[in-house]
Amino acid sequence: MRISGATIGAPDPGALAQFYSDLLGWPSEIEKNWAQVRSPGGDGLSTLNFEIEPDYVRPTWPSRPGEQQIMTHLDIAVDDLAAAVAWAEELGAVPADHQPQSDVRVMLDPAGHPFCLFTND
């Protein structure tokens, strides 16, 4: 067995898929209420799928009692952390207020899902 993809709930699957397509440089397929970005190399996690969540509530980071909890997040390896943060911000991501590690940047995508940028050093 191997995990080939992950599915993420979103209020606008097409917009979120376009964000990750641009961020990662992966091609996208966008349909009504569903979208996918696919790794051109097919290595590791090869697809990110996005499904409509009509009652979507943005998660909080860090998690706080009584508020929407984070169900999952993506870890994205990069060569240049500062350049990756700048690129993510240009595409609409924002840095999270809480940054627990100096060599990792927790970012929030346009729908509020956290993802981590880090170098493999």
TrEMBL record:
Pfam families: Glyoxalase_6. Residues 2-120 form the VOC domain. InterPro entries: Glyas_Bleomycin-R_OHBP_Dase, Glyoxalase_6, VOC_core. PANTHER family: CONSERVED PROTEIN, HYPOTHETICAL FUSION PROTEIN. This is VOC family protein.
